[in-house]
């Protein structure tokens, strides 16, 4: 698409307003599209997770993603953004943008500041929503809302500042193009801690807990890949401009998951003789996760290698987890935590200055980069684990974290939302309001029955 065309698209949304000095119309158009695509990823995640749980918990699981749009989104606008990107120190941003102060149409790089706020907000939203995959089918919804909001402010925002907002990891030279450390390691470790704090579902290890709608999961995986076109908004958009770096990220985000899917399918066939659809959906996500930190820093051939290599640790971490009492319900740590760690470290190996103009990795004469990547991984793991544990314990002091055994048995759709995803005939469960009369007190009018 020619730059003149992109400028024209941007102008459509700014009719009557001149672009601020330093704002580029083409870059603004690219980032408008990228922001929309990344926002789409949270509903996509709802379908991905929703298909993997039992039908009695489908709505609750999907709602855990959808409400992130509200609770994390509002928190990000009012406080999270300034903690992440406000002028501050090496550990935390200042309060200069508290309640959106000073966030307007002025240039942030080459795009309007308010658009930069929105783009970064979509990252915060989906990162918090990712954690829910380890909490499904047993966490009370009010407790989840409190935890989700606090986590976005006090775990996600500081790590985002460390890497992207002028903090110490960025100053150290850590490479994280679109969120391997900030998003995936952070969410994966938080999910692991959440699963440990909550404990296993009451039926875990006693009966098969099977996905109720695998096509939902495949749809979610497809939309996530498209949104990574938004991570092709995430990855492509993270260049923050319509430039060669965005084009490289775009290509790499197509190639890496394809290689992961290929390797994962072969592993499935060699191990069991069958290639599962849930495995294919998981492989796509693992490949997307692994290439996220590397997308703008490695060659396309290296992206293929990263994708293929990332399949192995996540695949075997998932198999190991299934043999333990750890109820990371939807394998968030195996997919996002292990995949993110793998991708971050491989970035330190395969980064190539000829492609990124920033830094080389181990294979191209700079072994120190791998050490820097490892330090960033360690920092994110430790802070996310400690912060998540503290917030869950704090929320637990205010309201119970776990649904009761009877609530789990009925399903969280009914007990937490008063709804059902599916009905049989006229409805499987009658949900009465608190003011509704008891069934035994209802009598037909006009005399005895």
UniProtKB/TrEMBL annotation:
Residues covered by the Ammonium transporter AmtB-like domain: 29-422
Pfam family of the protein (one): Ammonium_transp
GO molecular function: ammonium channel activity
Main location: membrane
Gene Ontology CC terms, in alphabetical order: plasma membrane
Signal peptide: none
InterPro entries attached to this UniProt entry: Ammonium/urea_transptr, Ammonium_transpt, Ammonium_transpt_CS, NH4_transpt_AmtB-like_dom
Location of the protein in the cell: Cell membrane; Membrane
Keywords recorded for this protein, A-Z: Ammonia transport, Membrane, Transmembrane, Transmembrane helix, Transport
Transport listed as a keyword: yes
Positions of transmembrane segments: 30-52, 64-84, 114-136, 143-165, 177-200, 212-234, 240-264, 276-295, 301-320, 332-351, 371-392
Membrane topology per record: Multi-pass membrane protein
UniProt xrefs under Gene3D superfamilies: Ammonium transporter AmtB like domains
Family: Belongs to the ammonia transporter channel (TC 1.A.11.2) family.
Protein name, entry field: Ammonium transporter
Organism: Thermus thermophilus JL-18
Source taxonomy: Bacteria, Thermotogati, Deinococcota, Deinococci, Thermales
């Amino acid at each position: 698409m020619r730059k003149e065309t992109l400028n024209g698209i941007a102008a459509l949304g700014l009719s009557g307003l001149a672009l601020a000095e330093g704002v580029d119309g083409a870059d603004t158009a690219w980032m408008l599209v990228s922001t929309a695509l990344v926002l789409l990823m949270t509903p996509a995640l709802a379908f991905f997770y929703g298909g993997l749980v039992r039908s009695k918990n489908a709505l609750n699981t999907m709602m855990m993603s959808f409400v992130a749009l509200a609770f994390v989104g509002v928190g990000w606008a009012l406080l999270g953004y300034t903690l992440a990107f406000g002028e501050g120190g090496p550990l935390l941003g200042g309060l200069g943008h508290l309640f959106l102060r000073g966030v307007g149409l002025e240039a942030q790089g080459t795009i309007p500041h308010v658009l930069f706020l929105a783009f970064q907000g979509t990252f915060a939203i989906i990162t918090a929503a990712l954690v829910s995959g380890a909490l499904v089918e047993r966490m009370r919804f009010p407790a989840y809302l409190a935890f989700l909001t606090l986590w976005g402010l006090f775990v996600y925002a500081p790590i985002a500042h460390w890497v992207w907002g002028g903090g110490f990891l960025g100053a150290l030279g850590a490479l994280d193009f679109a969120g391997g450390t900030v998003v995936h390691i952070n969410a994966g470790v938080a999910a692991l801690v959440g699963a440990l704090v909550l404990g296993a579902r009451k039926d875990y290890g006693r009966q098969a807990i099977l996905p109720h709608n695998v096509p939902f999961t495949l749809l979610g995986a497809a939309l996530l890949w498209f949104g990574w076109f938004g991570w092709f908004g995430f990855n492509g958009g993270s260049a923050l401009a319509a430039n060669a770096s965005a084009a490289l990220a775009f290509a790499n985000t197509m190639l890496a998951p394809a290689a992961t899917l290929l390797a994962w399918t072969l592993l499935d066939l060699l191990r069991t003789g069958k290639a599962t659809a849930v495995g294919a959906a998981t492989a796509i996500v693992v490949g997307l996760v692994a290439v996220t930190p590397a997308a703008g820093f490695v060659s396309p051939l290296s992206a293929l290698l990263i994708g293929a290599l990332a399949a192995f640790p996540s695949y075997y971490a998932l198999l190991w987890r299934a043999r333990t009492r750890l109820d990371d319900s939807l394998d968030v740590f195996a997919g996002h935590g292990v995949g993110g760690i793998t991708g971050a470290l491989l970035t330190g190996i395969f980064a190539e200055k000829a492609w990124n103009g920033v830094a080389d990795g181990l294979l191209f004469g700079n072994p120190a980069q791998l050490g820097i990547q490892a330090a960033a991984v360690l920092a994110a793991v430790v802070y996310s684990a400690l912060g998540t544990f503290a917030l869950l314990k704090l929320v637990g002091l205010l309201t119970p974290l776990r649904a009761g055994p009877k609530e789990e048995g009925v399903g969280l759709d009914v007990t937490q939302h008063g709804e059902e995803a599916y009905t049989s005939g006229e409805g499987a469960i009658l949900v009465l309001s608190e003011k509704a009369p008891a069934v035994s007190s209802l009598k037909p009018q006009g005399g005895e029955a």
